[in-house]
Design goal:
Strand content: 25-35%
Largest sheet: 4 strands, antiparallel
Distance between the termini: 63 Å
Number of strands: 7
Helix content: 10-25%
Shape: flat
Oligomer: single chain
Order of helices and strands: HEEEEEEE
Number of helices: 1
Length: 144
Amino acid sequence: MLARWGYGLPDVWSQMDRMGREMDQLFGRTQSSARVGVYPALNLFDDGESIVLRAEVPGMDPKELEINATGKALTIVGERKRPEVDEQASAHRRERGYGKFRRAISLPQEIDPDKVQANYKLGVLEVIMPKAEAAKPRKIEVAS
């Protein structure tokens, strides 16, 4: 039916995609899956034995990050320092934010807070949170 009006289906989808991009641009959204204003951006995954978090915190001193873990939550607190700029310089773009941040993450399973380890390398914070024994799957033998 669309072809009858001179529109092929691929053209309709490309037009809808173009309209979506224009709406995103109009409302200041980006193609990124990261939510605007949420810092730090992170990935959270389960490797079978642990819940692993990787967060982007470039340029930060890892000693200035505060990480707190409980059974089913992790909190990262820190502060990005305001960049030093010569008073005579005029800014053409200011996209990098600064200030205090706090990110609380609900975890999909119970972890053992006493065994949590954190590493920082090349601007990426990695937090390895071993699962609590009660959260690990157990093989149950069926009695006959």
